[in-house]
Amino acid sequence: MKLNMAVLCDRATVREGLLHILGAGVTRCSLALPGAPDLDLAILLQGEGLDDLAGRHTMTVEIKDSEGQGVGRAELGWDGPTVDPSAAEDLIPQLPVAIPIRAIQFTNPGEHTVTVAVDGHELTRLSVFITKAEIPGVTFRMA
């Protein structure tokens, strides 16, 4: 199994096996801290053979701050079907995934690392730099 793409973006959805992406390539985000970025993680996995995505698999996405402290974690599991080779001679097996990052609260500014692993094997690391939103005349505080 290989990773064809992993990208932070404004929005990602999956419909009918297609990955739809808006505003891909986010590397910086300004937030009222603590706060959640309005981002998704778009991932496209590809099987290296018809049976590569078959069986039970687990994808883990971990986000850590610059000090290595955990910010958020998502774990997704799937049971892929076995494909009859005679019925799928032109099939390229792939799995599109959209993970909402907007549900995760970030508390510290600085570089954050997003790690994507499948079945315990790290496939990629992405970085996003979080800055504290500074709006003149406006003070952010927790109620």
Describe the structure.
The chain has 143 residues and is mainly β. The protein is built from no helices and nine strands. It has strands at 2-15, 18-24, 28-31, 40-46, 55-64, 70-80, 94-100, 110-118, 121-132. Strands 3-9-8-5-6 form a five-stranded mixed β-sheet, with no helix packed on it. A four-stranded antiparallel β-sheet has the order 2-1-4-7, with no helix packed on it. It is elongated, with a radius of gyration of 18 Å. It starts with a strand and ends in an 11-residue tail after the last strand.
Q: Which regions are unreliable across 5 or more consecutive residues at pLDDT < 50?
A: none
Helix content: under 10%
Describe the sheet with the most strands.
Answer: 5 strands, mixed
| Mean of all residue-level pLDDT scores | 88
Q: Would you count the extended β strands for me?
A: 9
Structural class: mainly beta
Tally of DSSP helical segments: 0
- Described by its quaternary structure, the protein is single chain
N-to-C SSE string, H for helix and E for strand: EEEEEEEEE
Radius of gyration: 18 Å
Distance N to C terminus: 46 Å
Walk across the major sheet and give the strand order. Answer: 3-9-8-5-6
- Overall body shape: elongated
- Estimate what percentage of residues fall within beta strands: over 45%
Summarize this structure as a short list of keywords or feature phrases.
0% helix; 57% strand; 5-stranded mixed sheet; 143 residues; mainly beta; 4-stranded antiparallel sheet
